Amino acid sequence: MSTSSDTGGRSRPTIVDVAQRAGVSKSLVSLVLRGQPGASESNRTAVLRAAEELGYRANAAARSLAQQRTHTVGAVLSDLRNPWFIDLLAAVRAELTAHGLTLFLSEDFGMDRDASVLDAFIEARVDGLLCLGTLPPAQHLLSTARTLPTVVAAGREPDLPNVDVVTGDDRSGAARAVDHLVELGHRRIAHLAGTGRAADLRTDGYRDAMRRHGLDEYIRVEVSDRSEPGDHLAAVALLQPDDRPTAILANNDYAAVITMSHAKQLGLDVPHDLSVVGYDNSYLARLGYIGLTTLDNNYADMGRLAVQRLLARIADPQSARTVSLLDPELKVGSTSGNAEH
Amino acid sequence: MSTSSDTGGRSRPTIVDVAQRAGVSKSLVSLVLRGQPGASESNRTAVLRAAEELGYRANAAARSLAQQRTHTVGAVLSDLRNPWFIDLLAAVRAELTAHGLTLFLSEDFGMDRDASVLDAFIEARVDGLLCLGTLPPAQHLLSTARTLPTVVAAGREPDLPNVDVVTGDDRSGAARAVDHLVELGHRRIAHLAGTGRAADLRTDGYRDAMRRHGLDEYIRVEVSDRSEPGDHLAAVALLQPDDRPTAILANNDYAAVITMSHAKQLGLDVPHDLSVVGYDNSYLARLGYIGLTTLDNNYADMGRLAVQRLLARIADPQSARTVSLLDPELKVGSTSGNAEH
DNA sequence: TCGGGGACTTGGAGCGTTCCAGGCCTCAAA
DNA sequence: TTTGAGGCCTGGAACGCTCCAAGTCCCCGA
């Protein structure tokens, strides 16, 4: 009585409606719909037809309750503004889909909000959690990771015993950029640094490489706070007339573009007067045919690997922590050139 | 036996575990946890303490099964690359949260994939669906919208009887841009157009305004296909030496930046030799102190209104379709200036 | 003293699945 | 003819929550 046979009833058809229409038990419908063997051919087609005709769609809530598994993964994004998210997300989703998992996203809006975002995932009983990018340190996340299989991709935090990390090797990437600039004849190479674990590693890589090339005396680091004004301020400081560097390695493409824009205001030509190297190979790097020299983290591989790690952790939550560093690739564009001596 | 009292048991505690620990019935626990009145103060605190101590988190699947309501909204994004998504999403999420709803995102990767994305939302039994941006025409979406309350924001499709639309008034926005340029003395104003319903409306607005100002003879439209090469090609065509316009209205900020970049290559100064106006007031418009003149769709209002419409439709799915057009605001930057006669 | 009412509490019936322990056939071998 | 095996199918017990009808107290007024 609750549901009439046709679409007359307001609510969605259930498995029982399908069973009635096909003239079998609900158990058999469940069997067929899950694609399991063991049903006669005639019943199988009858069930499929009935489901089709009724427009039946399984109820994920009921299923997850019965199965104790949701086949769902939640992803927390640190900041959608980061252009490289898109490549990473595409790879992650493709790999998850290939394993029969569904991805739900949620952006993390600052520290206060993270509680509600994570709560939603926890209450939804996602099978695993993916943290994309460097998230602000949050108490809530730490306790969550203890009970929910978690993997961090494209970031270094949170730093916990049972959380895997898959990210680019920031240290070697920055060093590679310095090598490239040294090869072009630069010595006065400065670094526009950011804040956070990944940024610090890039700065370390810059420092190490400079020392390795015997350029200790030219080491110069200006720190920005991840904001646009901060980037601009740092660029202004670096480009003071006295003692101006001939090359700048920026913490990311965004800061690199801001640096270039300030250089132009000062009448400096890139790359003739100043070489600029970014980091991330975001679409900004290609924008407007800027052709920024930058480092590519290979987000396709990163996304794939992150999902594989997550699946492994879901299978065995107590397994030891792994840290995977992918080697970044230098993409030489038109913003780095020979040093003018 | 299935769950020991301490954290010894592997699986998450249920409402029954909390009830046992607090020494009350599960019904009372449910009452307290939902914040309803009618429980004694002592029991209330006992329940809250027990829940806290056990680290209890409600199971959304069980709740939605019992309540026949998920308090969840799904959003399908046409393309995360669009920089204005971020503002829109922030507004949408804030408004949803204020109404006790949770937002889950899913990007739509082309026509083929939309089925799986929508299926996930349908099986999750989201209360409503939000389509952000102009989505590719998809059969699947059409049939979904028939049974699931749906609202489109920042786009014009799908065009269905029971789907509300909340978007900027593209026509009047484009006209406003033309007015602005005419006021600056421009007559030779060209349009770099896009494809799709919204883009067509912008082109209409451009044409109408040109005619209204008696500039029919200067109407010139070059169409791009939403891709970067397409934008570039259109810019090249518009900036041919013969008969070059003094101002260009682009379909979006991205195309505007590409146009400016090509203008620079040709040695044209913006805004001295060429005025450029974008559309969307994305963060690109501000990037690198470009200060693009552009049109702001006021995504905060748009997001808020879209959610309100969705709530109304959830309450009454059969209500008549509404189309809300928000007036865009002209943001004058440094890329539009007086025409040189 | 009794009755009534209000404040608080509880058991149990769902919600839509999955999964498991059988049950009913039919057919072949003993 | 009996027995066993195997293919196919079914009912019912979970899963964790909400909601409702039906308590149980306790206190106050008649």
Order of helices and strands of chain A: HHHHEHEHEHEEHEHEHEHEHEHEE
CATH H-level name of the largest domain in chain A... which superfamily? Response regulator
Helix content of chain A: 40-55%
Oligomer: homodimer
SS summary, helix count of chain A: 13
The side-by-side strand order for the widest beta sheet of chain A comes to 2-1-3-4-5-11
- Radius of gyration based on Cα positions of chain A: 26 Å
Q: What is the C-level CATH assignment of the largest domain in chain A?
A: Alpha Beta
- CATH-defined architecture of the largest domain in chain A: 3-Layer(aba) Sandwich
Q: Tell how many strands the DSSP assignment of chain A holds.
A: 12
GO molecular function, one term (chains A, B): DNA binding
InterPro entries (chains A, B): HTH_LacI, LacI/GalR-like_sensor, Lambda_DNA-bd_dom_sf, Peripla_BP_I
Keywords (chains A, B): DNA-binding, Transcription, Transcription regulation
Protein name (chains A, B): LacI family DNA-binding transcriptional regulator
